[in-house]
């Protein structure tokens, strides 16, 4: 299993990307490996890796200006900012500016073709706008998320700085490589650790 993963299994485990919450929704059950004795659900690493791969392949079909990433949750701000810096993809860390997907009169308006949200619940206003204009939505979902209105669910710990850092590092590397913006086997200008540090 190890050699087929996008990063070493150890990196995944250290980031806590697989540690869910004590709550689980019916939709997320398919991604849960087990429930620990303390009640926390543990996500299946293989499925996390598989969905990150699908997300990377999907995003790599779009140019940078066609993608918008949103993270209202503070733990995702640093990762989203670094991701934007490295890839040139537009990211909003903090409050979603209403209308940026729907109102061409706004200075920040974006004719996005795909939306990525760090957490479907706090980022629901952006998802609603994406639905209005009919673009696909990729959502990072923890065990307690519902997957309403998401076209692709990527199971992960979407509350931890390290897990979000690792996920956005992987997506940045895969996107840049698949788009031919980074040589195969080369590393990004920012390291995995820079994405993951507190």
Describe the structure.
The protein is of the alpha/beta class. It has one domain: 3-Layer(aba) Sandwich (Rossmann fold). The chain has six helices and seven strands. It starts with 8 loop residues before the first helix and ends with a helix.
Keywords, separated by commas or semicolons:
198 residues; 7 strands; 5-stranded parallel sheet; 6 helices; Rossmann fold
Summarize the structure.
The chain contains six helices and seven strands. The protein has 198 residues and is an alpha/beta fold.
Report, as a whole number of angstroms, the end-to-end distance. 29 Å
Q: What is the H/E string? A: HEEHEHEEHEEHH
- Rg result: 16 Å
CATH superfamily: Glucose-6-phosphate isomerase like protein, domain 1
Strand-residue proportion: 5-15%
Bulk shape: globular
**Strand order across the largest sheet:** 4-3-5-6-7
- The tally of helices reads 6
Q: Low-confidence runs (pLDDT<50, min 5 residues)? A: none
Number of DSSP strand runs: 7
User: If you average the pLDDT, what whole number results?
Assistant: 95
């Amino acid at each position: 299993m190890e050699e087929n993963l996008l990063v070493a299994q150890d990196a995944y485990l250290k980031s806590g990307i697989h540690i869910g919450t004590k709550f689980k929704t019916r939709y997320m059950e398919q991604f849960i490996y087990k429930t620990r004795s303390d009640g926390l659900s543990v996500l299946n690493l293989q499925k996390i890796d598989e969905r990150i791969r699908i997300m990377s392949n999907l995003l790599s079909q779009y140019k940078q200006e066609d993608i918008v990433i949103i993270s209202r949750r503070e733990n995702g701000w640093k990762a989203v900012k670094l991701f934007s810096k490295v890839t040139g993809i537009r990211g909003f860390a903090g409050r979603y500016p209403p209308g940026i997907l729907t109102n061409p009169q706004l200075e920040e308006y974006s004719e996005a073709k795909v939306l990525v949200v760090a957490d479907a619940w706090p980022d629901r206003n952006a998802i609603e706008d994406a639905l209005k204009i009919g673009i696909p939505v990729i959502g990072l979902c923890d065990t307690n998320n519902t997957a309403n209105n998401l076209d692709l669910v990527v199971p992960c710990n979407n509350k931890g700085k390290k897990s979000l850092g690792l996920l956005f590092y992987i997506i940045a590397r895969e996107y840049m490589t698949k788009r031919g913006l980074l040589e195969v086997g080369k590393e990004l200008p920012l390291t995995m650790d820079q994405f993951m540090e507190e």
